[in-house]
Every structure is written in structure tokens, then in C-alpha cells.
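lol forgot to send this yesterday, sorry. C-alpha cells for the thing we talked abt
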């Protein structure tokens, strides 16, 4: 698409200020990644007009949330007194069962997680009664319904629920860092730049957002947070440093299932707002996933094995309660009848068979089984032998 004011930085900032009636973004460290992302959107994302409008709205929404956060911090400095305890951070290649495992752990008494609706608008709307986010939940439902109207197959790929625990990259993406951005749009130049960018400012602000969410919902006091995101794989050291007491849970699944499943998901997401050939999506993502793993291997050695819990997708399928209890024990969550009842109730209502089948193939994306096997041989030997 052409370089129009639709995706111009100054126009986006001005729109956010006008919509919120506020002017202070706090520390504007995010301007550099914002500039880089906008440049890639304009030059290579192949957005449709509707896609450009959708991207603009997502960015403005995130900027408005930041303005409201900064304003609330001024009026309620006690937000920064909230004690946030992140017990676990789930990482791993995408499509490795991390979503169901995240939601399983979050269902346990004593645990909490970011909800999908909170990720979309983490700041209360004007006039919202504390602890009663009715309008934000309604806005999230409208957004989700719109997505499913454009791409009904998404539900078979990733279970979407406005109240379901979801990923912190939704929030970090609104700060223009995290792999959410390359999942929203085909931006290989930005993705390459992001690989070398210090994202610690984003995680510093993420801690504040968690304090903010905890302050908004007093029932979370004393609970332990469980975070989850594929973005934690290539940037494991950033997450490990931001939350030094958190256990790092790495989920594993055979790349022969992971790679085509994830590329199919990315093609579906891109297709909502752009025109990107399947072969281009396939080539970008097989190389990107390979790059993520190579970056992670060195990071894991530096972080130290004592921080990690490895979870095999096959074991979760066979004995989900056993695997959940392994992680919860490391968090200091006791194996009580109440905990087991909550885990069992969650599993009863969240089986894979309750969602439509997700069909995908390597050939559609110009890839072969031989290439996947070759690229991920070391990973399979280390974690799935």
C-alpha cells in the first residue's frame, strides 16, 4: 500500500490523544520500535485498505491504554505498591500445547493470568467502576466476533474466549515489541530488527501493567501469575531477567506437527488484512522458527537448567493432571482436593475434541517434510527422543 497518513506515527499519536483526552505517554522509549514497525507495514506488509484500517485501530487502542495507564498512575500512585508474583512463564515453539497447559495452570486456586479481554484494553474505560469491566468485556466480544466473521476457521486453530487466559504479547505488542507484531502482519524487516533489539523496557512496563491489572481486581491479591507466550522462546533472557523468581516451563511437540500448524495459523491471520502468498508465509516462518530455537539454545545455557521445567505434549495428552501438578509443585502450590477439583473441572470442559478439526499441510506452503526434519533434527534429538 502507499505511504499514507493512515499509518503515520504523528497521526496515530494525535488520534490517541484526541480519543482519550490525555496527553502524557510517560517514557516514550516505544517510539523507536513503533517507527520500525510502521516502516515495515508501509513497505512490505501487503495490507488491504481494510487491513490498514484494522492495524491503525489496534495501534491507537494500545496507545490510548498507555495514556490511561499513565494518568491512573498519577491519580493512584498506590498501584505501584502492588506486589506481583510471577510463578511461571511458559515458553516453547508455538502449537506445542502451551495454550491448554497455560489455561490449565491458571484454573488452579491461588493462580491468575491475563484474560483475553484485558489484553485488548488493559486500562479501564472512562467512568468504569473498579472491578466491573462490563464495557471492556463487551468491546472484546465485539472484536472477537468480528475476527471470527472474517476468519471462522480461527477457532479450530486457537481456542478464543474473551475470559480465557491469554498471552502477555498482546500487551507487549501495544508497546511495539514482541513477536505479536510479526503475527499480525507480514513484516520480515521489522522481525529481523526486533531480534537484535533490547526489549527490557517492554518487560519493565509489563510489570507495571500486571500491577495495574491486580489493582483493578482486588480478588487477585495474593495469587501467583502464570505468563505464556511463544515470544518468550527467542527472548527468554529478557523474560527470565524481568521475573527472576519465575520457573520457565518449556513445552515440546514434534516439529512435524508444529511447523505446518503454526504456518497455517499465520496464513489465516495475515489473510484477514493482507494478500500474502502461502509460499511466502511458509518460507518466512520456517526460517523464523528455526532462528527462534537457535537463539534460545544459547540463552538456556546462560540462564541455567535449574530454572526450567520441560513438558512433553504427549505426556500432557496422556496425563494432564500429573504434568500440571509437576509445575504447580515448583510454584509452591499445594496438591489439595480443591486444586485437583479445579483442574479436573477445567479439563472436562476444554478437550481438543470440543473444537473443530484444524486441517493443514506442508505442501500448501511450499515446504517438505525433509526440510522440516533437517532443520529441527537437533531439537527433536534433545527434547523428544
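and heres what i got for the seq, position by position
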Amino acid at each position: 500500500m502507499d505511504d499514507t497518513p493512515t499509518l503515520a506515527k504523528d497521526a496515530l499519536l494525535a488520534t490517541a490523544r484526541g480519543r482519550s483526552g490525555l496527553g502524557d505517554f510517560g517514557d516514550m522509549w516505544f517510539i523507536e520500535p513503533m517507527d520500525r514497525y510502521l516502516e515495515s507495514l508501509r513497505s512490505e506488509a501487503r495490507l488491504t485498505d481494510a487491513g490498514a484500517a484494522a492495524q491503525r485501530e489496534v495501534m491507537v487502542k494500545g496507545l490510548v491504554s498507555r495514556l490511561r495507564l499513565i494518568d491512573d498512575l498519577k491519580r493512584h500512585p498506590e498501584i505501584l505498591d502492588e506486589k506481583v508474583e510471577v510463578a511461571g512463564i511458559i515458553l516453547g515453539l508455538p502449537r506445542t500445547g502451551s495454550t491448554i497447559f497455560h489455561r490449565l495452570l491458571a484454573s488452579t486456586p491461588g493462580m491468575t493470568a491475563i484474560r483475553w479481554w484485558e489484553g485488548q484494553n488493559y486500562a479501564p474505560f472512562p467512568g468504569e467502576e473498579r472491578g466491573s469491566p462490563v464495557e471492556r468485556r463487551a468491546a472484546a466480544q465485539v472484536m472477537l466476533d468480528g475476527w471470527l466473521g472474517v476468519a471462522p476457521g480461527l477457532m479450530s486453530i486457537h481456542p478464543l474466549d474473551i475470559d480465557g487466559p491469554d498471552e502477555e504479547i498482546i500487551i507487549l505488542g501495544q508497546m511495539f515489541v514482541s513477536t505479536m507484531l510479526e503475527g499480525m502482519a507480514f513484516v520480515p524487516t521489522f522481525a529481523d530488527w526486533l531480534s537484535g533489539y533490547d526489549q527490557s523496557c517492554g518487560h519493565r512496563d509489563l510489570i507495571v501493567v500486571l500491577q495495574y491489572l491486580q489493582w483493578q481486581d482486588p480478588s487477585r491479591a495474593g495469587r501467583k501469575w502464570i505468563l505464556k507466550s511463544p515470544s518468550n522462546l527467542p527472548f527468554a533472557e529478557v523474560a527470565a531477567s524481568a521475573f527472576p523468581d519465575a520457573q520457565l516451563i518449556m513445552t515440546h511437540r514434534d516439529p512435524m506437527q508444529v511447523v505446518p500448524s503454526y504456518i497455517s495459523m499465520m496464513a489465516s491471520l495475515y489473510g484477514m488484512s493482507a494478500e500474502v502468498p502461502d509460499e511466502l508465509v511458509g518460507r518466512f516462518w520456517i526460517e523464523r522458527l528455526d532462528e527462534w530455537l537457535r537463539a534460545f539454545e544459547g540463552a538456556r545455557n546462560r540462564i541455567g537448567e535449574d530454572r526450567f521445567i520441560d513438558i512433553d505434549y504427549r505426556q500432557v495428552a496422556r496425563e494432564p493432571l500429573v504434568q500440571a501438578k509437576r509445575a504447580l509443585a515448583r510454584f509452591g502450590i499445594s496438591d489439595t482436593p480443591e486444586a485437583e477439583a479445579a483442574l479436573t473441572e477445567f479439563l472436562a470442559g476444554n478437550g481438543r475434541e470440543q473444537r473443530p478439526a484444524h486441517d493443514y499441510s506442508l505442501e500448501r506452503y511450499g515446504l517438505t517434510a525433509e526440510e522440516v526434519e533437517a532443520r529441527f533434527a537437533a531439537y527433536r534429538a534433545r527434547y523428544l527422543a
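The beta strands are 85-92, 111-112, 224-228, 247-252, 308-312. anyway ping me if u want another try
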